[in-house]
Write a structure and sequence with these properties.
Length: 219
């Protein structure tokens, strides 16, 4: 770095600048080719019953605080793979632990490629592009080839989670809803809680999550 006359702070600035450039380029390409109502976003989230409570503690300055409240979460967590659009959460599936590649592919087949029993229409028929992050379970070459026969697949640039309506709005709204109605949800299984909250996300909230990504993109 000394030979290049660069400091650590200068390198960080360059890295952030490059990140902003790719974020801007990605979002421009996306909104030029597709309307918001043509975009479907998928991602995983893990929640446990402890989300219902904000744990607070006390302690003298310089001493690790003592927890005043303790929430037991063992055995009371779930991972959800969700599909999200400007209409809200379109569909979701749960698994114990975390999603691995086979579980992701199986759940995606069920939600994205299986026809609706009433309309005979698949989720892939209703949207033109699927946004995914760069998790390794999303990048199986053979499976991507299969998906792209039904829907275009775009990957959000690395370290640009603010470009995902799920990470930049929807999941945060889910947590706030869970805490707002904590007394009501406290006796429920976490999957029942998430089922209820996912259904409560309105199109108005969903559209805000998409617009929030636009506003969060550096211009």
């Amino acid at each position: 770095m000394r030979r290049l006359l660069l400091s650590k702070q200068a390198l960080q600035h360059i890295a952030l600048r490059l990140d902003e450039d790719q974020a801007r380029s990605f979002w421009h390409q996306l909104v030029t080719r597709y309307r918001y109502d043509q975009i479907l976003v998928a991602d995983e989230t893990s929640k446990n019953i402890g989300v219902l409570h904000s744990v607070r503690g006390w302690g003298q300055m310089g001493i690790t605080p003592t927890d005043r409240d303790t929430v037991l979460t063992r055995g009371r967590s779930a991972s959800a793979l969700t599909f999200f659009s400007v209409h809200g959460f379109e569909d979701w599936r749960f698994t114990n632990g975390t999603f691995d590649r086979p579980a992701f592919q199986s759940a995606t087949d069920q939600m994205l490629l299986s026809p609706d029993p009433v309309s005979s229409e698949t989720l892939a028929d209703r949207f033109l592009v699927l946004l995914l992050d760069n998790a390794s379970i999303h990048k199986d070459t053979e499976y991507l080839r299969k998906l792209r026969r039904h829907i275009a697949v775009w990957f959000i640039p690395p370290y640009c989670c603010r470009l995902s309506p799920l990470d930049n709005g929807a999941y945060g709204y889910v947590v706030r809803m869970m805490r707002q109605y904590a007394d009501y949800y406290s006796g429920m299984d976490i999957r029942h809680v998430l089922n209820d909250v996912f259904r409560r996300v309105t199109p108005e909230v969903a559209r805000y999550c998409f617009y929030n990504c636009y506003e969060g993109c550096p211009y």
